Amino acid sequence: MRLLDTLAGATPSMSRLTLSLATTPEEVREVQRLRYKVFIEAMGLSALENPDGLDRDEFDSYCDHLIVRDARSLDVVGTYRVMSPHAARKMGQYYSEQEFDLSRLDNLRPRIAEAGRACIHPDYRSGGVIMLLWTGLAAFMKREQCEYLIGCASISLADGGHNAAALFHSLSASNLAPTEYRVTPHLPFPIDDREQGHTPQVPPLLKGYLRSGAWVCGEPAWDPDFHSADLFMLLPLAKLDSRYARHYLGASRPA
């Protein structure tokens, strides 16, 4: 299912990109190969290495997979995994529930879409690919009649966790969700057991969430497999920043 064709125009090597949803097992494997190269090989996560060179789990078969291709080479250069409320019911949970207790959000479940495994090839990180992925995500939410987007934003622990702690402590009251939307990590990352005085560096995905108007719904979870601290993000479309709403959703969005 093709959602969008667009000219990226960022550099000559990525002058044309296409956006679609994976429709075949081979396309899903292409996505998993890109994720493996970015998440496992580049990050040096030797514990997750496998001979197939694929990053995959049991959620992949329940999710839709957004694909951005370089139309000249046909290589997959970006992907986002999205889960509808119906798919979450079939699976029995959202991916985020492996890390967080989402019981406070139970009343929202029929209207929640989850995004995860955001992944962009290193040569295509100038902005065009992530803009396409977010446009595809908005189209997916409109198709599934979802009013809330959830997902985890990961912060590397390569520095011992100092940036993750500094980032969380730097969040303003407007960045934090109201109490009724707070979630609890199953394995909390110890944000207070870190050196003081670090200047927080905001990862691009988290920056995109915050700029769009998303809330951080509590303290981070510790993901030892991916050596990261994960923040649970919640974006009500009604709260989506007007600039993003015009770009991704056009004139229509929930009131």
How does this structure look, described?
With 255 residues, this protein is an alpha+beta fold. It starts with a strand and ends in a 6-residue tail after the last helix. Strand 1 and strand 2 form a beta hairpin. The protein is globular, with a radius of gyration of 18 Å. The model is unreliable at 1-14 and 251-255 (pLDDT under 50). It is built from 6 helices and 11 strands. It has helices spanning 25-41, 85-91, 128-143, 162-170, 204-212, 242-249; strands at 2-7, 16-21, 64-70, 76-83, 100-101, 112-120, 148-156, 184-185, 215-216, 221-223, 228-236.
**Largest sheet composition:** 9 strands, mixed
Kindly provide the radius of gyration, computed on alpha-carbon positions and rounded to a whole number of angstroms. 18 Å
Q: What would the average pLDDT be, to the nearest integer?
A: 87
Strand proportion, as a percent range, falls in 15-25%
Reading the helices and strands in chain order gives EEHEEHEEHEHEHEEEH
How would you sum up this structure in a few lines?
The protein is of the alpha+beta class and 255 residues long. It has helices at 25-41, 85-91, 128-143, 162-170, 204-212, 242-249; strands at 2-7, 16-21, 64-70, 76-83, 100-101, 112-120, 148-156, 184-185, 215-216, 221-223, 228-236. Helix content is 26%, strand content 25%.
